[in-house]
Amino acid sequence: MTKTILTLAVIFLHIGSYGQPLIDKVRNGFYHQKFTEEPINIFELKWIPNSHDFWVSNDQGVFVYNADNLSEKKLVLSAQRISASGLSTVIENIVWSDDRSKILIYTNSTKVWRAKSKGDYWYFNLSGGKGRQLGKGLAASSLQFAKFSPDNRKVAYVSKHNLFEEEISSGTILKLTSDGKDKIINGTFDWVYEEELGIRDGFSWSPDGNNIAYWHTDATATKNYLMINNTDSLYPFIKPVEYPIAGEKPSLVKIGVVNLTSKKTTWMHVPGDPSDHYIPRMNWASNREVMIMQLNRLQNQGLFYLCNAETGNAKMFYSEKVEGGWIEPFNMLDWDAPWWVWSKDRKYFLRTEEKQGWLRVCKISLDGKEELLTKGNFDANLMTYDDESGDVYFEATPYDATQRYLYKVNINHADTVRVTPAVFDGTNVYSFSPDAKYALHINANIHRNYNLRLIHLPEHNKVYPNREDIFTEPNLGFRLEKLRVKTEDGIEMDGIMAKPNDFDPSKKYPVFFFVYGEPASAVANDVPYFNELIADLIPRGYIGVALDNRGTPVMKGTDWRMSIYKKIGVINSRDQAMAAKEILKLNFIDSTRVAVHGWSGGGAMTLNLMFRYPDIYKTGIAVSAVTDQRFYDNIYTERYMGLPQDDSDAYKQSSPLTFAKYLKGNLLYMHGTGDDNVHYKNAEQLINELIRDAKVFQLMVYPNRTHEISEGAGTTEQLAATFRKFIEEHAPPGGR
Predict the structure, then answer these.
(1) Rounded distance between C-alpha atoms, residue 516 and residue 548, angstroms
(2) Which of 36, 219, 291, 518 has the most Cβ atoms closer than 10 angstroms to its Cβ?
(3) Domain 332-474: homologous superfamily in CATH
(4) pLDDT, tens only, 544-568
(5) pTM value > 0.90
(6) d(Cα 624, Cα 632) in Å, to the nearest integer?
(7) Secondary element (H or E) of residue 456
């Protein structure tokens, strides 16, 4: 389901696919103006692998800085050389060779599903010569994940579901796989793997450059979801998307290793039926061995294998299991956090796991031995590792789950130390250099604007900019405050409340709840932010409230996160409703003007609240909601709900459709017909159910718009205006 996440490193800018990194929000907001005025726009820095150097580009070219001495910068590629090569579009990213003598410029990108992961690559030798475009003869903007071989003589990439190798000196292109087509995919992934396992780049060079390991997906047995496009031609046409709904078997996925001399692929012999498990992660453990993680279909057991690249023989050396819950395939607390981090000698790796009731940072050796590096009653989320000093950096929030701080523990089991200084109260985001010696640090809280700085670790000393830190109050048009609500069930929930600047405690105001409530997102965070659609209304005279119920990915322990297992729509809606009952007791809340809004998983929550607790919630706007758990994809739904064929009643009790007949209040439902994530079928099934029960509601359909409902001129403005008009009509603003 849509990951509208706000964690340490992710915050909503638009309620749509994957959310947007916090650094992007800063780039688009307060600090964008401030830091473009600095001599070095560290906003735009991108780290260079295996170093603490970074690059930035401007209208003069590409510059490289060393964080040890920022006064020295090096122009490595001038704008004139770029232009002379024939490249005239913006630099979207740069891929560096290991020796940093060569680069690939990525540009002209287009979306595959969520991200712009295919485009054009241009090769430049930084010592001189004219640049050229890679992939001659291949389709424009079709290359994906280009990367240099370890000896810097070749580049490998994916185009149209096949893997290619291109020799730099001659430009000769060799096709390493030949079976790629719509539903046979090499080196990248189908819709559901990208959406729910968080992976796009599906191949990796061996350290010695003799082999490439890659994912191979056979989705031929996966049924197509047929979406009708009524707007882009005179006659409607069908857009098929391979989309396995809950209960359908996964696509067949396996790992191959292609030898660059023989051009033959050896398949890794991971045990088990490939239609009954997933392979969410893979990389090289040595020149001869590939480490693969296999996740069972229920996603509660992970098996780690070392596979011989020449024979394909697989040996399991480690396993993990979660009882009554699941293993997250990516880090839901922080999407930018690594899934595992290798030691330099590749003798062990570090990983965050659910252990002893909390998230622990674990050291796992290739002989299967495990050590817990973090202990105590708090969650620890691995961020990076300084192999030289042995410092393991992780984020934690032992005292306030709405915040994030950086901690460290040494690999040799020294005491846990907080690294973030006390002055940086609130939410702290770090983008680490590959060697973990430096980091871009962003701090904010509900009363403080974003402060951006480049720091040196482990002492957290600022190295840039050369001025005092700026701690200013955000100008949001309303005031934010924290609240903690204890429900009649004894559940303590953290929340954020927004009040208009002219708030009068002697008056009663309408309250507008912003909800998500599923394992893919948290909404109560110590940052100067509130959902944009509701934030626009708060100055007009509304109280905004965002609460995190049980099951949300916050740092409150395993039981908090896993309690929602097989109870999505049940336990989370009850927590929200019982917390709302407590909030309605406040003297300044008008219990006759109670509104709720959510998108995607939050849309399902909105429907559940309107249907299950109609005496509390009077008005609701649900957008792009899953109305029946059976309609959503298998990886997400089965992870949190199990298989529908094993427990059909759990699916029924979790689905808003089951309770639509209890609607009493004012409901506006919005959905795009081109939604490839939560399909428009969900809307039509809801419409049918409400009609069957003679329920009056309002509907706003967006032709051919996707899950974000952002495409097309005027769409965003029209949606916001419709949203505002509906709320103001049914829950009028202002204190009374």
Answers:
(1) 8
(2) 518
(3) TolB, C-terminal domain (2.120.10.30)
(4) 999 999 999 999 999 999 999 999 9
(5) yes
(6) 12
(7) strand 448-456
When pLDDT is averaged across residues 371-375 and rounded to a whole number, the result is 95
Q: Are 565 and 480 in contact (CB under 8 A)?
A: no
Structure tokens that stand for 509 in this block: 């105001």
Tokens for 435?
Answer: 């060697």
Dihedral (CA of 580, 584, 589, 590) sign: positive
DSSP lists the bridge partners of residue 315 as 306
Per DSSP, the residues of 295-327 read: EETTS-EEEEEEEETTT--EEEEEEEE-TTS--
Residue type, 175: K
Ramachandran angles phi, psi of 141, nearest 5°: 50, 40
* Contact between 379 and 394 (Cβ < 8 Å): no
Collapse the DSSP code of 631 into the 3-class scheme (helix H, G, I; strand E, B; otherwise coil) and give the result.
helix
Q: Where are the domains of the chain?
A: 332-474, 478-730
Residue partners of 312: CB distance under 8 A and separation at least 6: 257, 266, 267, 268, 269
Instruction: Estimate the share of the chain in helix, then strand, then coil, as percent rounded to the nearest 5.
Output: 15, 35, 45
The dihedrals phi and psi of 30, each to the nearest 5 degrees, come to -55, -50
Q: What is the pLDDT of residues 617-635, one digit of tens each?
A: 999 999 999 999 999 999 9
Residue 278 predicted with pLDDT over 70: yes
Burial of 653 (0-12, 13-18, 19+ CB in 10 A): middle
Q: Tokens at residue 439, please?
A: 């980091």
The tokens for 233 are: 């031609």
Q: Kindly state the helix (H) or strand (E) to which residue 463 belongs, with its residue range.
A: strand 461-464
pLDDT tens digits for range 644-669: 999 999 999 999 999 999 999 999 99
Looking at CATH, the fold of the domain delimited by 478-730 is given as Rossmann fold (3.40.50)
